[in-house]
Design a protein that fits this description.
Structural class: mainly beta
Helix content: under 10%
Shape: elongated
Number of helices: 8
Largest sheet: 5 strands, mixed
Strand order of the largest sheet: 32-31-33-35-34
Number of strands: 67
Radius of gyration: 35 Å
Length: 919
């Protein structure tokens, strides 16, 4: 209930600040306010003074909301010194004057069809001003050009364009028009009232930030107050963090008073660029907030007479108790004392509408049950769906945003949200906007998620990484379930918002009681927890030890893991082999210049051979120029190992399997040696127990032959492993036991071909003796893929007493699905979880490849690379992407977030800022 008494105070009165627009004038853009279209309502004008200057306009409609911003003049001169706004020509509507090169005043005015007319050299000053500036003076009848470095100034009569040379107090940095006098300020912020032509410095008014000064309608802003005729009236604070705001006066609501716009330059997220409106009003004004309701009506309703949107839901109070632009909000059930949102639903003509409406009823119940209070005392949000005619024919092939513009009436822009409903699953939506699309598969959950985007939420609670303690349905990891229940998905209230974590330095003693974090024991993470009084112990790194300090672990992997910002090493048409030798990292891959043909797989092969390329890393995101190791004939994936300061590189060719050395220090490329003339064999290579092991896998039979080479280059006999593999293999060393670990795959049964597995071997002389086998993901698992695999071993503290294996591979490929996502299986100490394995996807469902990934240890992390596929052999197809944080461990903080408070205080209102044109 709002029952404020309107004050009877001499001087200007202003309503509390209300959101008006967002991010229109980031530095160095200059904000101005003037009625450029001559409709009686002042508009926001922005000028970017740098480079090719550009002018933007955000019109005001009905004094209620702004319209969408648009560019009203591009290439308006270069490097503008200063700008001013006013009625400078005879055409109705405000114009923009700009000072260029200290002497040329250029005019942009006579707005027509969304564009300003440009008048270069509208006025040329007798002499260029040093650090020249412009100010509108004499109640808008004059334009003053002055120097902030001297006393030089010129007064331009706007009726005749005559120029009069005048003097101003030297060192004046800012001038504002008070009507009968001017307000001037020095560099230190001292403000005085001064009459043009006077030799005295004027009567001191006060002191304020230069950037915070503004004048209009006889008013002067002095930081937190408005001065008028010797009276300073405090203005209501924003309640936001301190920011270097700029203020501009203009008659936004068309009632003859100068309203006050505040352009914030805060450093905080979301509201840092908020533009706030304080409406000027008189104590006897019938409707001071211009919401269409008189003060008496507002008193009867219990709404706030100084706030046109009492419940902060982007729907003006007067709209919610009646009809606006043909939309009967009162009949819909809207209430100016409860947050409401109206959503137009455009279903495709082939969806089950009965099912859609049932899910939308559940959506409405979910929003109604949100745990936040409204001004009228009710809980939750009123959600009102309006079903439009089905989307048919060619419109079903259009982007959803095109359909939004077609099916959401322009008159309802800034009033309603819109959502398309299609068959299938998933969805997409604006983030802090009014449109999106959703599929009918699990429509309730998907709709809540995508509508959360429209109201401004992202996937992570605005942390750099979506951590496990942000339990919101906006977090992909909790979009479809919470505590093992689909029905428990929810928007977060931020219960853990004061607690943050860093994957690079985790504490396994959580400063929170078990009841607050026990959900982490459930899907999707199933972390192991132990009650510990007022704290809780957790095994973040899955090494079987609780309560460790300074732990490094990837803890936000449920949806996917990622290796950080992706570098681009050029085009690759094989898997990338990554190798580190002598502290230097290298990428080796095949490429060719064959013309693209979407019908033909571009991967190198016998019918499509290529060259072998090496890149050496200088530092992250900087690589040395490519070195060609083999000019032609490469038919498959290269492999390499580092030893003795050299790289030993093996690769299949049209002549068989070839081996070469490369010396990074000298750049010398060794002679080619044919290891096998059988062109069907696929090589692998590894160092183990001080020996180099060469493996040759036969794809036709699955047989694996191997040969060892000792440090003196003595060749061992070729031998054959007893086990066969469906995939090319990889070998690493368990540094804890000294055993060899072979990564491979076999057909477990008819429904599980190419199942990943590891086998352990001991070395007896030159012979590998099998010790045991383990399926990745356990005997009941499903993890499999058709590409070469890579295995790495981690013997660090975070891997636990026994260390752990990382197993990298591409998913399953088929003739009809020739690319797949890339995965890593991480061994963990807890055997009750998938027999001791976590399987993670890299990046997302769009980051797919035709070839196996590459991985190598480098400076305490893993370099991870893959060959991108864009699905159509476009410009980005075959790009070789590399991430420097393959362990998925990142230094960015992560935590919880209060979605509901965000909805109420920012998201809902700012998602519908800009009003469309009426009928």
């Amino acid at each position: 209930m709002f029952l404020p008494l309107l004050p009877h105070v001499a001087g200007p009165l202003f309503t509390p600040p209300q959101p008006w627009a967002l991010n229109l004038a980031p530095h160095p853009v200059v904000p101005l306010v003037g009625d450029v279209d001559g409709d009686g309502f002042a508009d926001i004008v922005t000028v970017n003074p740098t480079g090719d200057c550009e002018i933007g306009v955000t019109r005001t409609l009905e004094g209620l909301k702004p319209t969408l911003p648009f560019s009203a003049r591009q290439k308006w001169g270069k490097q503008c010194d200063s700008v001013a706004i006013g009625q400078f020509d005879t055409t109705p509507g405000a114009d923009v004057a700009g000072l260029f090169k200290g002497s040329e005043i250029r005019l942009a005015g006579s707005l027509k069809d969304g564009q300003f007319n440009d008048v270069p050299n509208w006025v040329t000053l007798p002499k260029a001003l040093s650090e020249g500036r412009l100010a509108t003076v004499r109640d808008g009848k004059g334009l003053l050009a002055y120097s902030s470095k001297s006393a030089d100034a010129y007064l331009i009569d706007l009726g005749t364009k005559e120029i009069e040379t005048v003097r101003i107090p030297s060192g004046t940095q800012w001038i504002g028009d008070l009507g009968s006098a001017l307000a001037i300020s020095t560099k230190n912020g001292e403000v005085a009232q001064w009459k043009l032509g006077s030799s005295a410095r004027g009567e001191k008014i006060g002191k304020a930030r230069l950037a915070g000064l503004a004048a209009g309608g006889g008013n002067l802003v002095l930081d937190g107050s408005v001065w008028n005729g010797g009276v300073a009236i405090p203005i209501a604070p924003t309640g936001l963090p301190e920011g270097n705001s700029r203020f501009v006066f203009g008659d936004i609501d068309g009632d003859g008073d100068a309203d006050l716009l505040e352009f914030r330059y805060g450093s905080e997220r979301h509201t840092g660029g908020q533009i706030l409106l304080r409406r000027s009003y008189r104590s006897d004004e019938a409707d001071p907030d211009h919401d269409g309701l008189s003060t008496e009506q507002e008193k009867a309703l219990g709404t706030d007479p100084l706030n046109p949107d009492t419940d902060n839901d982007a729907l003006i109070d007067g709209w919610e108790v009646g009809i606006y632009r043909g939309l009967d909000m009162k009949a819909l059930g809207c209430d100016p004392l409860r947050v409401d949102t109206i959503c137009l639903i455009s279903p495709f003509d082939d969806v089950d509408m009965a099912r859609v409406k049932l899910d939308m009823e559940r959506v409405a119940r979910s929003f109604a049950e949100l745990d936040f209070s409204n001004p009228g005392g009710a809980k939750g949000l009123g959600f009102h769906a309006i079903y439009l005619d089905p989307v048919k024919g060619e419109d079903k092939n259009q982007p959803w945003w095109a359909n939004r513009e077609k099916f959401r009436a322009e008159k309802w822009r800034g009033v309603v949200h819109w959502m398309q409903v299609t068959r299938g699953g998933g969805g997409q939506a604006d983030e802090l906007g009014d449109g999106g699309t959703v599929g009918t598969n699990d429509l309730w959950a998907v709709f809540l998620h995508e509508f959360g985007h429209q109201m401004g939420l992202d996937h992570s609670g605005f942390w750099s990484g979506g951590g496990p303690i942000y339990s919101s349905l906006m977090n992909y990891n909790y979009s479809y379930g919470f505590e093992d229940s689909h029905d428990k998905i929810h928007f977060s209230k931020g219960p853990l918002a004061k607690f943050s974590m860093f994957e690079t330095d985790l504490d396994e003693t959580l400063p929170l009681p078990y009841d607050q974090v026990k959900f982490l024991e459930k899907a999707p993470y199933r972390f192991r927890l132990k009650e510990n009084g007022t704290t809780t112990l957790i095994d973040w790194n899955w090494n079987g030890i609780f309560g460790e300090k300074h732990v490094r672990a990837d803890i936000n992997y449920a949806y996917s893991t990622h290796a950080g910002l992706r570098d681009d090493l050029g085009k690759a048409k094989t898997m990338p082999c990554l190798i580190v030798e002598g502290g230097k990292a290298f990428a080796i891959f095949g490429a060719n210049d064959r013309v693209k043909d979407p019908k033909v797989d571009p991967t190198l092969g016998p019918e499509n051979p290529g060259r072998l390329v090496l890149r050496q890393l200088e530092k992250p995101f900087k690589w040395k120029p490519p070195v060609v190791l083999e000019k032609e004939g490469i038919t498959g994936d290269p492999v390499a190992v580092g030893t003795g300061g050299k790289l030993q590189v093996l690769y299949p060719t049209t002549k068989g399997v070839v081996m070469r050395s490369y010396a990074p220090a000298s750049g010398q490329i060794g002679e080619a040696t044919v290891v096998s003339s059988d062109t069907k064999l696929v090589p692998s290579v590894a160092m183990h127990a001080g020996k180099l092991f060469i493996f040759l896998w036969n794809p036709a039979t699955g047989e694996i032959d191997y040969q060892s080479v000792d440090p003196r280059a003595k060749l061992g006999a070729w031998q054959r492993l007893q086990a066969k593999s469906t995939n090319a293999v990889s070998l690493c060393t368990d540094t804890k036991t000294g055993e060899a670990i072979l990564g491979m795959a076999q057909n477990q049964d008819d429904k599980r071909p190419n199942r990943w597995q590891i086998r352990r071997y001991t070395l007896k002389g030159d012979r590998l003796v099998e010790k045991g086998m383990q399926w990745i993901d356990g005997v009941d698992g499903q993890s499999r893929g058709t590409s070469r695999v890579t295995v790495l071993f981690d013997g660090s503290k975070d891997a636990g007493p026994s260390g752990r294996i990382y197993f990298f591979g591409l998913g399953m490929l088929t003739p009809t699905s020739p690319w797949s996502c890339v995965y890593v299986a991480q061994q963990i100490a807890d055997k009750s979880v998938r027999d001791g394995w976590l399987v993670k996807r890299y990046y997302d469902e769009w980051s797919q490849s035709r070839s196996a990934p590459g991985a190598a240890w480098y400076k305490g992390d893993i370099l991870y690379a893959y060959r991108w596929v864009d699905g159509g052999q476009g410009e980005t197809d075959n790009n070789l992407h590399l991430g420097y944080q393959g362990l998925g461990i990142h230094a960015d903080p992560m935590g919880d977030f209060d979605d509901l408070t965000f909805f109420q205080t920012f998201g809902i209102r700012n998602s519908l800022l800009y009003l469309g044109n009426g009928e």
